[in-house]
Amino acid sequence: MxxxxxxxxxxxxxxxxxxxxxxxxxxxxRNATHPIMCSDELARxxxxxxxxxxxxxxxxxxxxxxxxxxxxxxxxxxxQQRGVTLSDGSISNLCDRFLTYFEALHxxxxxxLRHAMQGGYPxxxxxxxxxxxxxxxxxxxxxxxxxxxxTRIPSEHEDYLRxxxxxxxxxxxxxxxxxxxxxxxxxxxxxxxxxxxxxxxxCHYHFLGAVGKKLFEKPYRVLGNLLRQxxxxxxxxxLLRDLRQYRRSSTFSGRFGxxxxxxxxxxxxxxxxxxxxxxxxxxxxxxPYLEFLQRCQQAVRKAECWVPSPRTPxxxxxxxxxxxxxxxIERDTRFATVETRLEKGWQAFCELRDVLQLTNAxxxxxxxxxxxxxxxxxxxxxxxxxxxxxKGYEAELRERTANTGNDDSTNPSPARIILKYFKxxxxxxxxxxxxxxxxxxxxxxxxxxxxxxxxxxxxxxRKLRRRLGRAHLGRDLEDQPAQAAxxxxxxxxxxxxxxxxxxxxxxxxxxELDEQALEQTTPLSRNNRDSALLRRVRILVKHESKDQASxxxxxxxxxxxxxx
Length: 564
What we know:
The structure is a single chain. By secondary structure, the protein is an alpha+beta fold. Among the domains are: 2-108, no CATH class; 220-341, no CATH class; 533-564. The protein has 23 helices and eleven strands. It has helices at residues 40-45, 54-66, 71-82, 88-108, 110-116, 158-172, 184-189, 191-195, 204-230, 232-248, 264-274, 288-297, 299-306, 313-331, 333-356, 376-404, 414-425, 451-468, 474-479, 493-499, 506-511, 515-519, 531-563; strands at residues 2-12, 18-27, 122-130, 133-141, 146-152, 177-180, 200-202, 253-254, 257-258, 434-436, 442-445. Strands 5-4-3-6-7 form a five-stranded mixed beta sheet, sandwiched between helices. A two-stranded antiparallel sheet has the order 1-2. A hairpin with a 2-residue loop joins strand 3 and strand 4. The radius of gyration is 32 Å and the shape is globular.
């Protein structure tokens, strides 16, 4: 072996800071076809032709995507702890490299992951966006909470969903069941699995929510329009602002005369506007407009109870003004009509919810911890009892609709609406498979809701808001590559053990990836729009503007020549 050449490189590492590495490369003196020998130790430390080490890539990627840190925080941490100075652009480039490496590692470990998923897995499917932007579609293992595959989508059309479902099943095998929402695109995407005998289930939360929206759709919209028309909420908030000024100073003299005003009167106004301040359930599991209307109807009676006598003149005038505001509801008979329709629909909705026994903890904004993990056998029995109750309820609905005859097609009865949904989706509601051991003991049950991806999306959006400092994430979700969805798997110890042993070994696992593994990854996409066509549009508009300017200039010259 002879020295071919030596090469120096400045390397930035997280473990040792900045290094000046000298690599001595050697070649065979007798046969030039033999490969040149390079430093194996250096190759494990940093990729050829790169100066940022694998451990630095891992540190920046984990800080950004797993812990939700901002780039400025990462920069300050690296400088203070390791003396490494990086620009924002370098941190972004390291994040992209981390996503590419991790996707390659995830795909390379598919055989090991598939072995760890012995016994099958329920495939939970869901997509998310923010204000119609940044569509992300994920396929998840419902029992383990692992993101198996993810992709960017412009819409929830079958053409965008089916390829990822097929890729997921090709890599990890057919699931024991699919759990999804009620979208048509999602149903068509899992149609091949359904044809192969894989049970297809509709999320009970989405089913109940769809029924509720159908029950409340027209009267709830009418009620909202009536409240906006009468400007009741705005006037009550203005009254609350005035009363707060009275509360701050006992000598304040406002539109109700000199103070003071009883301190419980502002509390009454706040209760009318916001209730007791508890976290509200998502629509249609709560009806904020109806609840506000009902509190308004109780306002005068509450004032008599909450504001004792004797009352100051300012207090009496404020209560009189509140009474005049509330009387707007009494004078408009449309409020009573729409309230009756909503209460009738709400009674039917609560009846259906009692049949399905969907608790608040099973809603997407409820408890993030599955309630069935510790007692899967009881959960399986509970689902069987719910199925029996639902069948009896469906039969009861048939009797009700048969006795009432034909309803108005434009305004069907609640029973007829619920029965219609049962006929369409009833076969997708029950029969959830279980995972059993050799003794037949139930180890796990397929979840009846799609809360696994719902909770995942909620946690990732909170993390994204933390590192970006913005509430509306439409543009940010478009700019974030789909590969970032896989990083959440590193929160699961079993996944980490299978993929790399521990997070400390993640840099070594990246270094062991070959070029073939990296070629299997998908390009990092920063948005879900048709960027190529948009670039072509900008070029055409630019050329059109130039041609128009040229024509205007020629016309001006011709006009001048004519005058001359």
